[in-house]
Amino acid sequence: MMAASHRLLLLLTVVAVGVMRRKPPVVAAGDAPPGKIAVVGAGIGGSSVAHFLQQHFGPQVQLDVYEKDTVGGRLATVTVNKQQYEIGGASIHSLNLHMQDFVKLLGLKHRRELAGKSAIFSGEQFALEETDWYLLNLFRLWWHYGMSFLRLQMWVEEVMEKFMRIYKYQAHGYAFSRLEELLHSLGGDTFVNMTQRSVAESLLEVGITQRFIDEVIVAILRASYGQSVPVPAFAGAMSLAGAQGNMWSVEGGNNLVCSGLLKLTKANIIEATVTAISLHNSEGKTFYQVHYEDEEGQGSSFYDIVVIAAPLHNNKSNISFQNFDPPIAEFPGTFHTTVTSVIHGYLNSSYFGFPDPKLFPFASILTTDAPVLFFSSMDNICPVNISSTFRRKQPQEAAIWRVHSQHPLEKQELKTLFRSYYSVQVTEWQAYPDYGSSKSLPPIVLHDNLYYLNSMEWAASSMEMAAVAAKNVALLAYNFWNRDLEKIDQKDLMHKVKTEL
């Protein structure tokens, strides 16, 4: 508790600061760079947008990043036996160019990956098992599912080839004020429609069998989003691309990208909860007052530009928007609860049909949508720092397992999966949108110089999608500020980009 005199001094200071800030300096947009920019959230979206904003506006702009929890957001680790393990976003696709650039820029390294076989469990038996032989794996896929796996690969490759256009557009400074515009520029009406129909519908149309969808596609979606085939086709394609590509992660933890980018930009990190954003106008200029609460009480500060890099939907945010006319509409949709349990223990291989634990060959287990299954996926994970002498634990040894489920595992469920265990660490979070809860895509532009970065995850959610959204918002803010409207929502961008080369 603070002494009374300390409280009085603090109160007088807050009042004095409030008086000094009541009339912020008026600078017409376009005449000079913005003086102050606020970013709400220090996850991968917030940290990368801070980096991109400084890249475009220059080092003179003051960047304040508000974070109520820890830097990294949904990129997080837990400690078991003095070693750290990923519990949030764990893998990055080899085609994720922004994440690749961040790692090079920050002098980070790719983590050494240890190979491990995967299998899909139906609750009674394994529907599909990976072997050490590539040709045998292909033969098994063909034997079980015919040409479905090839048709899937062709469909995903076509989607990814079109998606990769975003890097060219952004390299030439083009930005989009609506998600629909961004998607349309990449894949026309097809990409926009893919956010409105399920991945199952799209896959059936290209000749993929229902059995392949029920056993393989569902298992991949449950492992990535904790959800099944009602997931929209675009989000599903991004998830399936991850299942097929070369995946990597950052040595020391993926959250090092977030802390590294914020350190590089010399952003001012404010450990506080943003409670409100109020709109003000003075001499034709729009500016914002960000209200927040920290350990010392309430405070506020004025900004030229505000980027919200945290979810705003119903059960995810308590930020109120004040003085907006018309008011900013509420965001429909909810988030999907994902529970991550990190368990140090001995796997009960008998549950999976292997009475002798020494014979259990899998490091990763995906699951179908069978009602008897109480978990979405589980994998034998390695620490974020892997030495040259590190080896994966043998199946009969106590290992670190990460289990994803929709509810905290009950004691009986833990006993089903493990013969015995030393520790259980549970993290319950709303990691992804519940894709069945809203059919509309949220806006990117909430008001002049007020942007919502996390709208992107309603199209698809991943580290790279957040980085793409961050680059888009930074370009959007820069182009709007400098009234360069030719760089916003342009049509036929592929032709324009080719002529600029």
Fill in the keyword field for this structure.
alpha/beta, seven-stranded mixed beta sheet
Notes on the protein architecture:
This protein has 501 residues and is of the alpha/beta class. It is built from 14 helices and 21 strands. A hairpin with a 2-residue loop joins strand 10 and strand 11. Helix 2 packs parallel to helix 11, helix 3 crosses helix 11 and helix 9 packs across helix 10. The chain is globular, with a radius of gyration of 24 Å. It holds the Pfam family NAD_binding_8. Keywords: FAD, Flavoprotein, Glycoprotein, Oxidoreductase, Signal.
**Regarding quaternary structure, how should these chains be classified?**
single chain
Mean pLDDT, nearest integer?
A: 89
Portion of residues in beta strands equals 15-25%
Q: What gap, in angstroms, lies between the N and C termini?
A: 63 Å
Poorly predicted regions are 1-30
The biggest beta sheet reads: 7 strands, mixed
Q: Give the helix proportion (percent range).
A: 25-40%
Strand line-up in the sheet with most strands: 7-6-16-17-18-15-19
- Structural class category: alpha/beta
**Quantity of strands, as a count:** 21
Number of helices: 14
Protein name: L-amino-acid oxidase
Family: Belongs to the flavin monoamine oxidase family. FIG1 subfamily. Belongs to the prenylcysteine oxidase family.
Keywords: FAD, Flavoprotein, Glycoprotein, Oxidoreductase, Signal
Pfam family, one: Prenylcys_lyase
